[in-house]
Amino acid sequence: MREEVVYPYLGFSTPTILRMTATTIDEVIAALDEIIRSAKETENPLGYFAALYRKVTIRVKEKIAEGYFDDGARMERLDVIFANRYLEAYAAYQSGRPTTDAWREAFVSGKNPKLIVLQHLLLGMNAHINLDLGIAAVEVSGDDDLEGLHNDFNKINSILSSLVEDIQGCLSRIWPGLVWILKLTRRADDLIVDFSMEVARDGAWKFARELNAERADRRPAAIRNRDQKIARLVRVILAPGWVERTVIRLVRWTELGRPAQKITILEEALD
């Protein structure tokens, strides 16, 4: 169901967003398009993650059409369930309604003007992969077939892995010095890999198995505990080690463009 409504985004001018519970991948992409459009109009840095997520969703759609997954229909359901957790959290935050701690921390921290694009992306990836992915996996599998999803779950992580170089290419267009700094230290690259591939493969799947093993009445508490843990990881993104802090300072001083321009660069570089 779609309903166009106006929500006051805290700290930014009022955008119009498309409130949606998606039922297909195409509807997910349409909702992401609307978030991106609104973010550009309001110079909202939350559009960075939406631009990245749109690319991931399109790649999954393409892979489903190619027969890449063991069960393409199930993977579309997983993609939609997974995406709805982000779309609903985004709409809830903008309307002042409660959301998970992990997403609240991501959205609140996202208003910090000192953050660089990489940190914005990691905030979204932290909440969505570390918390939402495991929940979506359990929901799409039912109580008895989680292990049957494992191979396709790993294939999703392969898609994420293939996007790492694309992400670096985007960031190097926003901050041309990134290519030089990555020759001196691989730490920035490691930060991307740690939060996307390794955590998605190991942490999210482990959480899915733990959640699946819980009785239904105990699952909300298990999700709450996981949510609190993932929310605390935001501190690592905002205040990493000294090498990362040095890189972040250099990037912050020289990143090119306003948020709308950076969102456009991300869209163009990821297409």
Can you describe this structure in just a few lines?
This protein is mainly alpha-helical. It is built from 13 helices and 2 strands; from the N terminus they run E-E-H-H-H-H-H-H-H-H-H-H-H-H-H.
Short descriptors:
271 residues; mainly alpha; two-stranded antiparallel ribbon; 2 strands; 72% helix; globular
Describe this structure in words.
- With 271 residues, this protein is mostly helical.
- Helices cover 72% and strands 4% of the residues.
- It has 13 helices and two strands.
- It has helices spanning 25-42, 47-65, 72-94, 101-109, 117-141, 150-162, 164-174, 178-184, 187-213, 219-232, 234-238, 242-254, 259-270, and strands spanning 2-6, 16-20.
- The chain has a two-stranded antiparallel ribbon.
- Helix 1 packs parallel to helix 3 (72-94).
- It is globular and about 50 Å long.
Oligomer: single chain
- Overall mean pLDDT stands at 79
Q: How many DSSP H or I helices?
A: 13
Which class do the helix and strand fractions yield? mainly alpha
Q: Which shape, going by the Cα principal axes?
A: globular
Question: How many beta-strand elements?
Answer: 2
- The helix/strand order is EEHHHHHHHHHHHHH
Strand content: under 5%
Biggest sheet, open or closed, and with what strands and sense?
2 strands, antiparallel
Low-confidence runs of at least 5 consecutive residues: 1-19
Gyration radius, in Å:
18 Å
Helicity, in percent?
over 70%
